[in-house]
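Example record

Each entry pairs one chain with its bound ligand, BIS(adenosine)-5'-pentaphosphate.
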Amino acid sequence: MKLIFLGPPGAGKGTQAERVIQSLGIPQISTGEILRRAIKEQTETGRRAQSYIESGALVPDEIVLALVEERLQSPDCANGYLLDGFPRTIKQAEALDNIARMDAVVNIQVPDEVIVERLSGRRVCAACGHTTHVSIAKDGICPVCGKPLTQRKDDEASTVRNRLTTYAQQTRPLIEYYEKQGLLLSVDGCLPMEEVTAQILSKLRERQG
Ligand code: AP5
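Structure tokens for the complex follow.
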């Protein structure tokens, strides 16, 4: 199965992807994660992407497309994949249309006021990559691997506002783009995490018939 998870920053794309791939047995491909790793390792791509990410802008299409095209050639993508945070512009979506036909696009809907609260409390494990929230991991320790949790640089309030504007201008038009292709499945991202996962899996099963 080839899937896209669409939604504003903080909608829960990463959280849901982590859960859904366990049921579907496909890899999660997060362009945000690939870019953050490149920045950490200070590769040429990382150096080019850093200022865009830290200001809440999108990384230029040609950089992201090159990363995705390379990643999709890996053997683990042979039976499908879940794209988390890609595509994010019409140009990226058109390029993807030329690479593969998607089975479904899951649109996780969450209003802006909920997003700001979620992102200010988000914590990420630098060791295993697990994402959680301060309201869950109160002791600052990763519930999966026991290592200390960290905060993402782009979760600062002013950067979050820029990311929301960027989403509205450049990514939201993809909802209509995929609706027209008959691929869009919308879920309520404000429900508890387990219920969002159940909704996604049930809509995917319905789609598969
Ligand atoms: P990326 O890493 O993709 O960030 P994003 O899309 O802004 O999404 P987030 O990771 O912030 O949120 P999420 O929806 O995954 O939510 P999460 O599950 O963490 O991209 C970062 C940057 O990289 C971009 O700004 C851009 O610069 C660049 N980039 C990436 N891809 C690109 C592309 N294709 N083109 C160009 N540039 C690109 O959840 C958030 C919080 O909410 C967590 O604390 C979680 O525990 C909590 N939460 C989740 N679900 C629930 C729930 N149901 N109830 C309560 N709390 C919940």
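The two ends are 13 Å apart (CA to CA).
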